[in-house]
Amino acid sequence: MIGPQSPLEAITQAFTGFLFGRIETTRLPVRTSSNQAQAVYLPTAAPGLGDSGVIIGREVYSGKGYIYDPFQLYGQQLPAPHWLVLGESGNGKSALEKTYVLRQLRFRDRQVVVLDAQGEDGVGEWALIASQLGITPIRLDPMAALDSGIRLNPLDPSITTTGQLALLRTIIEVATGRALDERSGFALKVAHNSVSEAVKPGTQPVLMDIVEQLRHPRPEAAEAMNVAMEDVRNWGLDVALVLDRLVDGDLRGMFDGPTTIGIDLDAPLIVFDLSHIDRNSIAMPILMAIVGVWLEHTWIRPDRIKRIFLVEEAWHIINSPFVAQLFQRLLKFGRRLGLSFVAVVHHLSDVVDGAAAREAAAILKMASTRTIYAQKADEARATGKVLGLPRWAVEIIPTLTPGIAVWDVNGNVQVVKHLVTETERPLVFTDRAMTESSAPDPLEEAEYEQTSTRESTVA
Q: Region Disordered: which residues (predicted)?
């Protein structure tokens, strides 16, 4: 309550007026309630991320529109344009990813690649969006590949010989779960050199060529190291058996021939549909390694296009030391060429406690933006400790409702409600995800349309 002025205050004011010649006006005291008196305080809100970029939604506490764009913020508020999205299923990750991509594609200088590892009704989750944009997903399917399906060649001439050898080593290390020893590495290097030297102009070497060289190494290789031919053959036997899986095993047909002609790497959206691959098998990290390196050498170019590389089920990358090392290099390299890497993971514990803890920490450190949807209390505390979230943010993560997340953009932490328009809704909500948010608010629709106008002006 605001009460009358005390005698001491009245004397003090009178003395001050006499001394400095000021005449103070006297107003009668006003008796009011605390609830009404709070109106004298001006509303305040934490500073936003600017008004240029992609509308995400609005801040829960202030009601302000929330706009985020790593390319606009990079170098000023963001040291790196990479982004980590965390949260349990059914809380809105999928809707956020899809609307973010759709809104980014409104800019003329944007291009997106998605590794779609989730599937429904026999197709990937991104099939509907790709169809709406007139894009045909690149479906990597061992069964379809046997009938002239899509192939990506690890020995594609567009990949440097150094990159080819690094990729072959990674495939073998992921499959065996251990680093390639020196003797096996030598045998692989000899086989790769022999194949590279023998390739004819206008043709592509293939994995079968490597397997054949491992089985039947050239005599010059043994002579150069002053070892017996049988030793070189034995050193490469395990390597040949691993690569044979890609040629004549359960992964055959996807990587054992020349790259399929007609893959449009200039399309605004490129979707690799991995939904027909068992996500819990060793095949998934092998696929991600091959696709990642293949894209590094064929897709990322110094053409001033801003690119987004979105990976679902990204723990297959971060949890494998050998694949993580490849992607760590890609992330460092990509920053110079305008690449934003978006990793989508259910639980941070899936990666920080895995075999690639050191590599995972390095990749997480490069992700200056972290979006955390609802998690159980124990998981939220572990996530907060690893990511350095403030205590208040950790405490509210278990209480978040679908569609609301904690956003940490290089220390600027806000609670944000993601907005989905009626136009986007049928494209981003699958049958499984229909419970991710409630019906759209007409006010939210109007806010989005207003911000979209500003967004188009930037483009």
A: 432-459
